[in-house]
Amino acid sequence: MSTNNDQNNEMNHLMEEIEKTMVRLHSGDIVKGHVISVTRDEVTVNLGYKSDGIIPRDEVAGEIASDLPAHFSVGDEIEVCVVQVDDGDGNVLLSRKKVDAMNEWVELSDAKEKEETIDVTMKEVVRGGMIAYYKNVKCFIPASQLSDRYVDDLNVFVGQQSKVRILEMDRRRSKVILSRKVVIQEEKEQKKKELLITLQKGQVVEGQVKQITNFGAFVDIGGIDGLIHISELSWGRVKHPSDVLSIGQQVDVEVLDFEESSERISLSLKSTQPEPWKVAGDKYQIGEVIEGVVVRLVDFGAFVEIEPGLDGLVHISQISEAHVAKPSDVLQKGQKVQVKILDVNVTDQRMSLSMAAVEKDNKADESVGETEAADNNVSETEEQAVTIGDAVGDVFKEEALEDTDETDAVNMADDISETVEETEAVEETEAVEETEESKPE
Protein backbone atom coordinates (compact mmCIF):
# COMPACT_ATOMS: atom_id res chain seq x y z
CA MET A 1 0.00 0.00 0.00
CA SER A 2 2.81 2.34 0.97
CA THR A 3 4.55 1.59 -2.31
CA ASN A 4 1.47 2.52 -4.33
CA ASN A 5 1.08 5.80 -2.50
CA ASP A 6 4.69 6.64 -3.13
CA GLN A 7 4.28 5.93 -6.84
CA ASN A 8 1.17 8.13 -7.05
CA ASN A 9 2.94 10.94 -5.28
CA GLU A 10 5.86 10.70 -7.68
CA MET A 11 3.50 10.70 -10.65
CA ASN A 12 1.63 13.76 -9.38
CA HIS A 13 4.88 15.52 -8.69
CA LEU A 14 6.11 14.68 -12.20
CA MET A 15 2.87 16.01 -13.72
CA GLU A 16 3.21 19.20 -11.72
CA GLU A 17 6.74 19.64 -12.95
CA ILE A 18 5.66 19.03 -16.55
CA GLU A 19 2.80 21.56 -16.21
CA LYS A 20 5.25 24.10 -14.88
CA THR A 21 7.25 23.77 -18.12
CA MET A 22 4.13 24.16 -20.28
CA VAL A 23 3.01 27.55 -21.52
CA ARG A 24 -0.05 29.16 -20.04
CA LEU A 25 -2.59 30.31 -22.62
CA HIS A 26 -5.32 32.93 -22.48
CA SER A 27 -7.73 34.17 -25.11
CA GLY A 28 -6.16 36.96 -27.12
CA ASP A 29 -2.58 35.83 -26.54
CA ILE A 30 -0.16 36.00 -29.47
CA VAL A 31 2.10 32.93 -29.34
CA LYS A 32 4.47 30.99 -31.56
CA GLY A 33 4.24 27.33 -32.47
CA HIS A 34 5.34 24.73 -35.00
CA VAL A 35 3.15 23.21 -37.70
CA ILE A 36 2.74 19.45 -37.18
CA SER A 37 0.14 18.73 -39.87
CA VAL A 38 -1.68 20.46 -42.75
CA THR A 39 -4.95 19.48 -44.44
CA ARG A 40 -7.25 21.21 -46.89
CA ASP A 41 -9.42 22.55 -44.05
CA GLU A 42 -7.06 23.18 -41.10
CA VAL A 43 -3.52 23.55 -39.81
CA THR A 44 -2.46 21.80 -36.57
CA VAL A 45 0.12 23.62 -34.45
CA ASN A 46 2.20 22.45 -31.49
CA LEU A 47 2.19 25.31 -28.99
CA GLY A 48 4.06 23.56 -26.14
CA TYR A 49 0.71 23.32 -24.39
CA LYS A 50 -1.09 20.25 -23.12
CA SER A 51 -3.31 20.41 -26.19
CA ASP A 52 -2.46 21.17 -29.79
CA GLY A 53 -3.79 24.25 -31.49
CA ILE A 54 -6.06 24.20 -34.58
CA ILE A 55 -6.25 26.96 -37.25
CA PRO A 56 -9.49 26.51 -39.26
CA ARG A 57 -9.43 27.65 -42.88
CA ASP A 58 -11.77 30.58 -42.13
CA GLU A 59 -9.17 31.95 -39.68
CA VAL A 60 -6.65 32.37 -42.49
CA ALA A 61 -6.81 35.57 -44.55
CA GLY A 62 -7.07 36.18 -48.29
CA GLU A 63 -5.88 33.84 -51.01
CA ILE A 64 -3.90 31.71 -48.53
CA ALA A 65 -7.16 30.24 -47.22
CA SER A 66 -7.99 28.77 -50.64
CA ASP A 67 -4.94 26.48 -50.59
CA LEU A 68 -3.52 25.81 -47.09
CA PRO A 69 -1.04 23.06 -48.14
CA ALA A 70 0.59 25.49 -50.60
CA HIS A 71 1.35 28.03 -47.87
CA PHE A 72 2.03 25.92 -44.73
CA SER A 73 4.53 23.09 -44.30
CA VAL A 74 5.26 20.72 -41.41
CA GLY A 75 7.97 22.20 -39.22
CA ASP A 76 7.20 25.85 -40.04
CA GLU A 77 7.31 28.22 -37.10
CA ILE A 78 4.32 30.53 -37.19
CA GLU A 79 2.74 33.18 -35.04
CA VAL A 80 -0.92 32.75 -34.06
CA CYS A 81 -3.58 34.34 -31.90
CA VAL A 82 -5.42 32.29 -29.26
CA VAL A 83 -9.16 32.59 -29.85
CA GLN A 84 -10.29 29.95 -27.32
CA VAL A 85 -8.21 27.85 -24.94
CA ASP A 86 -10.69 24.97 -25.31
CA ASP A 87 -12.83 24.76 -28.44
CA GLY A 88 -15.04 22.04 -26.84
CA ASP A 89 -13.03 19.20 -28.31
CA GLY A 90 -10.03 19.73 -26.07
CA ASN A 91 -8.12 21.71 -28.71
CA VAL A 92 -6.96 25.31 -28.67
CA LEU A 93 -8.73 27.43 -31.32
CA LEU A 94 -6.22 29.62 -33.13
CA SER A 95 -6.33 32.42 -35.73
CA ARG A 96 -3.68 33.39 -38.25
CA LYS A 97 -5.89 36.13 -39.71
CA LYS A 98 -5.91 38.18 -36.49
CA VAL A 99 -2.13 38.04 -36.22
CA ASP A 100 -1.76 39.24 -39.83
CA ALA A 101 -4.20 42.07 -39.17
CA MET A 102 -2.33 43.16 -36.05
CA ASN A 103 0.99 43.12 -37.91
CA GLU A 104 -0.50 45.05 -40.82
CA TRP A 105 -1.80 47.74 -38.48
CA VAL A 106 1.67 47.98 -36.96
CA GLU A 107 3.11 48.42 -40.47
CA LEU A 108 0.56 51.13 -41.24
CA SER A 109 1.36 52.92 -37.99
CA ASP A 110 5.09 52.87 -38.80
CA ALA A 111 4.47 54.12 -42.35
CA LYS A 112 2.37 57.04 -41.12
CA GLU A 113 4.92 57.98 -38.48
CA LYS A 114 7.78 57.91 -40.99
CA GLU A 115 5.63 59.52 -43.77
CA GLU A 116 6.40 56.61 -46.08
CA THR A 117 4.27 55.47 -49.03
CA ILE A 118 2.49 52.13 -49.04
CA ASP A 119 1.17 49.97 -51.87
CA VAL A 120 -2.56 49.34 -52.02
CA THR A 121 -5.01 47.66 -54.41
CA MET A 122 -8.11 49.65 -55.36
CA LYS A 123 -11.14 47.39 -55.24
CA GLU A 124 -14.48 49.18 -55.31
CA VAL A 125 -16.06 52.55 -56.08
CA VAL A 126 -18.29 53.82 -53.27
CA ARG A 127 -20.02 57.07 -52.54
CA GLY A 128 -17.42 59.79 -52.32
CA GLY A 129 -14.41 57.75 -53.28
CA MET A 130 -12.76 54.36 -53.52
CA ILE A 131 -12.26 51.34 -51.23
CA ALA A 132 -8.66 50.11 -51.26
CA TYR A 133 -6.83 47.36 -49.35
CA TYR A 134 -3.43 47.36 -47.73
CA LYS A 135 -2.93 43.61 -47.61
CA ASN A 136 -6.07 42.73 -45.58
CA VAL A 137 -6.79 46.11 -44.02
CA LYS A 138 -9.69 48.00 -45.59
CA CYS A 139 -8.92 51.66 -46.39
CA PHE A 140 -10.68 54.61 -48.02
CA ILE A 141 -9.45 57.08 -50.66
CA PRO A 142 -11.66 60.18 -51.11
CA ALA A 143 -12.43 61.06 -54.74
CA SER A 144 -10.54 64.34 -54.35
CA GLN A 145 -7.41 62.39 -53.34
CA LEU A 146 -7.37 59.93 -56.24
CA SER A 147 -5.62 62.17 -58.77
CA ASP A 148 -4.18 65.63 -59.25
CA ARG A 149 -6.58 66.07 -62.17
CA TYR A 150 -10.35 65.77 -62.36
CA VAL A 151 -11.51 62.21 -63.06
CA ASP A 152 -15.04 61.80 -64.41
CA ASP A 153 -15.34 58.01 -63.93
CA LEU A 154 -13.65 56.50 -60.85
CA ASN A 155 -14.17 52.98 -62.20
CA VAL A 156 -10.99 53.40 -64.28
CA PHE A 157 -9.04 52.86 -61.04
CA VAL A 158 -10.70 49.56 -60.04
CA GLY A 159 -8.13 46.75 -59.91
CA GLN A 160 -5.14 49.09 -60.10
CA GLN A 161 -2.25 48.96 -57.66
CA SER A 162 -0.92 52.30 -56.55
CA LYS A 163 1.38 54.01 -54.09
CA VAL A 164 -0.44 56.15 -51.49
CA ARG A 165 0.27 58.22 -48.41
CA ILE A 166 -1.65 57.78 -45.11
CA LEU A 167 -3.58 60.94 -44.18
CA GLU A 168 -5.51 59.66 -41.14
CA MET A 169 -5.51 56.45 -39.11
CA ASP A 170 -7.55 55.15 -36.14
CA ARG A 171 -6.93 51.52 -35.09
CA ARG A 172 -9.84 51.39 -32.64
CA ARG A 173 -12.33 52.46 -35.32
CA SER A 174 -10.55 50.50 -38.08
CA LYS A 175 -10.28 53.74 -40.04
CA VAL A 176 -7.54 54.51 -42.59
CA ILE A 177 -7.75 57.50 -45.00
CA LEU A 178 -5.31 57.49 -47.91
CA SER A 179 -4.17 59.90 -50.62
CA ARG A 180 -2.89 59.01 -54.08
CA LYS A 181 -2.87 62.67 -55.15
CA VAL A 182 -0.12 63.62 -52.68
CA VAL A 183 2.19 60.93 -54.07
CA ILE A 184 1.55 62.03 -57.69
CA GLN A 185 2.32 65.64 -56.82
CA GLU A 186 5.52 64.67 -55.01
CA GLU A 187 6.66 62.55 -57.97
CA LYS A 188 5.98 65.41 -60.38
CA GLU A 189 7.92 67.85 -58.24
CA GLN A 190 10.87 65.48 -58.23
CA LYS A 191 10.68 65.05 -62.00
CA LYS A 192 10.52 68.82 -62.45
CA LYS A 193 13.71 69.31 -60.46
CA GLU A 194 15.52 66.61 -62.42
CA LEU A 195 14.25 67.95 -65.76
CA LEU A 196 15.16 71.58 -65.08
CA ILE A 197 18.72 70.54 -64.24
CA THR A 198 19.23 68.83 -67.63
CA LEU A 199 17.02 71.07 -69.84
CA GLN A 200 18.79 73.14 -72.54
CA LYS A 201 17.70 75.69 -75.14
CA GLY A 202 17.47 74.15 -78.59
CA GLN A 203 16.90 70.69 -77.14
CA VAL A 204 14.22 68.58 -78.86
CA VAL A 205 12.08 66.61 -76.42
CA GLU A 206 9.00 64.42 -76.63
CA GLY A 207 5.81 65.53 -74.92
CA GLN A 208 2.07 65.01 -74.68
CA VAL A 209 -0.56 67.67 -75.32
CA LYS A 210 -2.42 68.29 -72.06
CA GLN A 211 -4.44 71.45 -72.70
CA ILE A 212 -5.44 73.59 -75.69
CA THR A 213 -6.32 77.30 -75.39
CA ASN A 214 -7.01 80.11 -77.85
CA PHE A 215 -3.42 81.31 -77.64
CA GLY A 216 -1.60 77.97 -77.79
CA ALA A 217 -1.19 74.49 -76.32
CA PHE A 218 0.36 73.19 -73.08
CA VAL A 219 2.56 70.12 -73.47
CA ASP A 220 3.83 67.84 -70.68
CA ILE A 221 7.49 67.18 -71.44
CA GLY A 222 8.14 64.87 -68.50
CA GLY A 223 6.62 66.19 -65.31
CA ILE A 224 6.43 69.84 -66.28
CA ASP A 225 4.22 71.69 -68.77
CA GLY A 226 5.58 73.97 -71.48
CA LEU A 227 3.65 76.34 -73.76
CA ILE A 228 3.61 76.22 -77.56
CA HIS A 229 2.37 79.68 -78.57
CA ILE A 230 0.02 79.71 -81.56
CA SER A 231 2.74 81.42 -83.61
CA GLU A 232 5.06 78.44 -83.00
CA LEU A 233 2.61 75.74 -84.07
CA SER A 234 3.15 75.89 -87.83
CA TRP A 235 5.06 77.73 -90.54
CA GLY A 236 1.66 78.55 -92.01
CA ARG A 237 -1.31 80.47 -90.67
CA VAL A 238 -3.22 78.85 -87.76
CA LYS A 239 -6.73 79.99 -86.91
CA HIS A 240 -6.95 77.94 -83.72
CA PRO A 241 -4.47 75.53 -82.04
CA SER A 242 -7.08 72.74 -82.21
CA ASP A 243 -6.67 72.80 -86.00
CA VAL A 244 -3.12 71.49 -85.51
CA LEU A 245 -3.11 69.55 -82.22
CA SER A 246 -5.46 67.41 -80.13
CA ILE A 247 -5.53 66.48 -76.43
CA GLY A 248 -3.31 63.45 -75.69
CA GLN A 249 -1.31 63.74 -78.92
CA GLN A 250 2.40 62.87 -78.72
CA VAL A 251 4.64 65.51 -80.28
CA ASP A 252 8.32 66.39 -80.64
CA VAL A 253 9.01 70.00 -79.64
CA GLU A 254 12.04 72.25 -79.37
CA VAL A 255 12.84 74.17 -76.19
CA LEU A 256 13.03 77.86 -77.11
CA ASP A 257 13.51 79.27 -73.60
CA PHE A 258 12.87 78.47 -69.93
CA GLU A 259 13.05 80.06 -66.49
CA GLU A 260 14.02 77.64 -63.75
CA SER A 261 12.69 79.85 -60.94
CA SER A 262 9.19 80.26 -62.39
CA GLU A 263 9.21 76.92 -64.25
CA ARG A 264 8.04 78.67 -67.41
CA ILE A 265 9.05 76.85 -70.60
CA SER A 266 8.52 78.09 -74.16
CA LEU A 267 8.29 75.40 -76.83
CA SER A 268 8.08 75.28 -80.62
CA LEU A 269 6.48 72.68 -82.85
CA LYS A 270 7.25 74.30 -86.20
CA SER A 271 11.00 74.47 -85.55
CA THR A 272 11.12 70.66 -85.55
CA GLN A 273 9.82 70.70 -89.14
CA PRO A 274 11.65 71.85 -92.33
CA GLU A 275 11.27 75.58 -93.05
CA PRO A 276 9.38 75.76 -96.39
CA TRP A 277 11.52 78.49 -97.97
CA LYS A 278 14.75 76.59 -97.33
CA VAL A 279 13.62 73.73 -99.59
CA ALA A 280 11.42 75.73 -101.99
CA GLY A 281 14.22 76.18 -104.55
CA ASP A 282 14.67 72.44 -104.96
CA LYS A 283 11.00 71.55 -104.56
CA TYR A 284 9.41 73.97 -107.04
CA GLN A 285 10.54 74.72 -110.62
CA ILE A 286 9.83 77.70 -112.90
CA GLY A 287 7.11 76.81 -115.39
CA GLU A 288 5.54 74.23 -113.08
CA VAL A 289 1.74 74.36 -112.66
CA ILE A 290 0.55 73.79 -109.09
CA GLU A 291 -2.59 74.23 -107.01
CA GLY A 292 -2.87 76.77 -104.21
CA VAL A 293 -5.39 78.56 -102.01
CA VAL A 294 -6.09 82.29 -102.06
CA VAL A 295 -5.23 83.56 -98.57
CA ARG A 296 -5.13 87.34 -99.05
CA LEU A 297 -6.46 89.88 -101.57
CA VAL A 298 -4.81 93.26 -102.08
CA ASP A 299 -5.26 96.03 -104.65
CA PHE A 300 -2.27 94.89 -106.70
CA GLY A 301 -3.03 91.17 -106.71
CA ALA A 302 -3.65 88.02 -104.65
CA PHE A 303 -1.44 85.97 -102.35
CA VAL A 304 -1.79 82.23 -102.89
CA GLU A 305 -0.62 79.68 -100.30
CA ILE A 306 1.21 76.80 -101.96
CA GLU A 307 1.83 75.00 -98.66
CA PRO A 308 1.82 76.11 -94.99
CA GLY A 309 4.36 78.92 -94.67
CA LEU A 310 4.90 79.32 -98.42
CA ASP A 311 2.93 82.04 -100.27
CA GLY A 312 3.28 83.38 -103.78
CA LEU A 313 1.95 86.56 -105.40
CA VAL A 314 -0.35 86.58 -108.42
CA HIS A 315 -0.04 90.15 -109.70
CA ILE A 316 -3.30 91.72 -110.89
CA SER A 317 -1.97 91.60 -114.45
CA GLN A 318 -1.48 87.82 -114.09
CA ILE A 319 -4.92 86.96 -112.73
CA SER A 320 -6.57 86.65 -116.15
CA GLU A 321 -5.94 87.34 -119.82
CA ALA A 322 -8.98 89.58 -119.65
CA HIS A 323 -8.83 92.95 -117.90
CA VAL A 324 -9.29 92.75 -114.11
CA ALA A 325 -10.19 95.97 -112.27
CA LYS A 326 -9.94 94.52 -108.76
CA PRO A 327 -8.73 91.08 -107.66
CA SER A 328 -11.82 90.72 -105.47
CA ASP A 329 -13.98 90.90 -108.61
CA VAL A 330 -12.53 87.59 -109.77
CA LEU A 331 -11.23 85.84 -106.67
CA GLN A 332 -12.29 85.22 -103.08
CA LYS A 333 -10.41 84.18 -99.96
CA GLY A 334 -10.19 80.39 -99.56
CA GLN A 335 -10.66 79.72 -103.28
CA LYS A 336 -8.51 76.98 -104.83
CA VAL A 337 -6.70 78.04 -108.02
CA GLN A 338 -4.24 76.65 -110.58
CA VAL A 339 -1.12 78.79 -110.99
CA LYS A 340 2.09 78.64 -113.01
CA ILE A 341 5.39 79.47 -111.30
CA LEU A 342 7.06 82.45 -113.01
CA ASP A 343 9.91 82.97 -110.54
CA VAL A 344 11.24 81.63 -107.21
CA ASN A 345 13.48 83.86 -105.08
CA VAL A 346 14.55 81.85 -102.02
CA THR A 347 16.78 84.62 -100.65
CA ASP A 348 13.99 87.20 -100.50
CA GLN A 349 11.36 84.52 -99.91
CA ARG A 350 9.27 85.58 -102.89
CA MET A 351 7.44 83.57 -105.52
CA SER A 352 5.77 85.03 -108.61
CA LEU A 353 2.73 83.17 -109.89
CA SER A 354 0.37 83.47 -112.85
CA MET A 355 -3.19 82.35 -113.40
CA ALA A 356 -3.30 84.00 -116.83
CA ALA A 357 -0.47 81.77 -118.07
CA VAL A 358 -2.45 78.68 -117.07
CA GLU A 359 -5.50 80.10 -118.81
CA LYS A 360 -3.47 80.73 -121.97
CA ASP A 361 -1.95 77.26 -121.93
CA ASN A 362 -5.40 75.71 -121.56
CA LYS A 363 -6.70 77.68 -124.56
CA ALA A 364 -3.69 76.63 -126.64
CA ASP A 365 -4.32 73.01 -125.74
CA GLU A 366 -7.98 73.40 -126.80
CA SER A 367 -6.92 75.02 -130.11
CA VAL A 368 -4.53 72.19 -130.87
CA GLY A 369 -7.31 69.77 -130.15
CA GLU A 370 -9.65 71.56 -132.55
CA THR A 371 -6.98 71.61 -135.31
CA GLU A 372 -6.40 67.90 -134.93
CA ALA A 373 -10.15 67.32 -135.12
CA ALA A 374 -10.36 69.45 -138.34
CA ASP A 375 -7.48 67.51 -139.92
CA ASN A 376 -9.27 64.30 -139.11
CA ASN A 377 -12.43 65.65 -140.84
CA VAL A 378 -10.44 66.56 -144.01
CA SER A 379 -8.95 63.08 -144.16
CA GLU A 380 -12.38 61.54 -143.86
CA THR A 381 -13.68 63.82 -146.66
CA GLU A 382 -10.82 62.80 -148.95
CA GLU A 383 -11.47 59.13 -148.33
CA GLN A 384 -15.18 59.60 -149.04
CA ALA A 385 -14.46 61.53 -152.27
CA VAL A 386 -12.09 58.86 -153.54
CA THR A 387 -14.60 56.16 -152.74
CA ILE A 388 -17.40 58.02 -154.58
CA GLY A 389 -15.12 58.74 -157.56
CA ASP A 390 -14.16 55.13 -157.87
CA ALA A 391 -17.77 54.07 -157.76
CA VAL A 392 -18.86 56.61 -160.38
CA GLY A 393 -15.93 55.70 -162.59
CA ASP A 394 -16.85 52.05 -162.47
CA VAL A 395 -20.42 52.81 -163.55
CA PHE A 396 -19.42 55.00 -166.46
CA LYS A 397 -16.80 52.50 -167.60
CA GLU A 398 -19.40 49.77 -167.78
CA GLU A 399 -21.80 51.99 -169.78
CA ALA A 400 -19.05 53.10 -172.12
CA LEU A 401 -18.00 49.56 -172.82
CA GLU A 402 -21.48 48.75 -173.88
CA ASP A 403 -21.78 51.70 -176.39
CA THR A 404 -18.19 52.23 -177.56
CA ASP A 405 -15.07 50.35 -178.14
CA GLU A 406 -12.66 49.59 -175.31
CA THR A 407 -10.36 52.56 -176.02
CA ASP A 408 -13.12 55.17 -175.89
CA ALA A 409 -14.46 53.71 -172.67
CA VAL A 410 -11.09 53.94 -170.98
CA ASN A 411 -10.67 57.57 -172.07
CA MET A 412 -14.09 58.44 -170.70
CA ALA A 413 -13.31 56.82 -167.36
CA ASP A 414 -10.05 58.78 -167.17
CA ASP A 415 -11.92 62.05 -167.76
CA ILE A 416 -14.34 61.23 -164.92
CA SER A 417 -11.42 60.42 -162.61
CA GLU A 418 -9.83 63.80 -163.35
CA THR A 419 -13.12 65.53 -162.54
CA VAL A 420 -13.34 63.70 -159.17
CA GLU A 421 -9.76 64.64 -158.34
CA GLU A 422 -10.52 68.32 -159.00
CA THR A 423 -13.57 68.07 -156.75
CA GLU A 424 -11.50 66.54 -153.97
CA ALA A 425 -8.93 69.35 -154.22
CA VAL A 426 -11.60 72.03 -153.96
CA GLU A 427 -13.19 70.35 -150.88
CA GLU A 428 -9.81 69.99 -149.18
CA THR A 429 -9.04 73.71 -149.73
CA GLU A 430 -12.39 74.75 -148.29
CA ALA A 431 -11.93 72.53 -145.21
CA VAL A 432 -8.49 74.05 -144.48
CA GLU A 433 -9.85 77.58 -144.87
CA GLU A 434 -12.66 76.81 -142.39
CA THR A 435 -10.10 75.48 -139.89
CA GLU A 436 -7.94 78.60 -140.18
CA GLU A 437 -10.96 80.83 -139.59
CA SER A 438 -11.86 78.90 -136.42
CA LYS A 439 -8.40 79.44 -134.82
CA PRO A 440 -8.23 82.21 -132.10
CA GLU A 441 -6.54 85.43 -133.13
Architecture overview:
With 441 residues, this protein is α+β, with helices and mostly antiparallel strands. It folds into 5 domains: 18-95, OB fold (Dihydrolipoamide Acetyltransferase, E2P); 114-184, OB fold (Dihydrolipoamide Acetyltransferase, E2P) (Beta Barrel), CATH 2.40.50; 199-272, Beta Barrel (OB fold (Dihydrolipoamide Acetyltransferase, E2P)); 276-354, OB fold (Dihydrolipoamide Acetyltransferase, E2P) (Beta Barrel), CATH 2.40.50.140; 371-438. It is built from 8 helices and 20 strands. It has helices spanning 2-21, 68-71, 97-114, 181-198, 276-283, 327-330, 356-403, 406-438; strands spanning 30-38, 42-46, 53-56, 77-84, 92-95, 117-126, 129-134, 137-142, 161-170, 175-179, 204-213, 216-220, 225-229, 250-259, 264-268, 289-298, 301-307, 310-315, 336-345, 350-354. It has a 5-stranded mixed barrel with strand order 1-2-3-5-4. Strands 8-7-6-9-10 form a 5-stranded antiparallel beta sheet. A 5-stranded mixed barrel has the order 11-12-13-15-14. A hairpin with a 4-residue loop joins β12 (216-220) and β13. α7 runs antiparallel to α8. The longest helix has 48 residues, at 356-403.
Could you outline the blueprint of secondary structure elements for this entry?
Blueprint: H1 2-21, E1 30-38, E2 42-46, E3 53-56, H2 68-71, E4 77-84, E5 92-95, H3 97-114, E6 117-126, E7 129-134, E8 137-142, E9 161-170, E10 175-179, H4 181-198, E11 204-213, E12 216-220, E13 225-229, E14 250-259, E15 264-268, H5 276-283, E16 289-298, E17 301-307, E18 310-315, H6 327-330, E19 336-345, E20 350-354, H7 356-403, H8 406-438
Parallel strand pairs: 3-5, 13-15, 18-20
Antiparallel strand pairs: 1-2, 1-4, 2-3, 4-5, 6-7, 6-9, 7-8, 9-10, 11-12, 11-14, 12-13, 14-15, 16-17, 16-19, 17-18, 19-20
Helix pairs in contact: 7-8
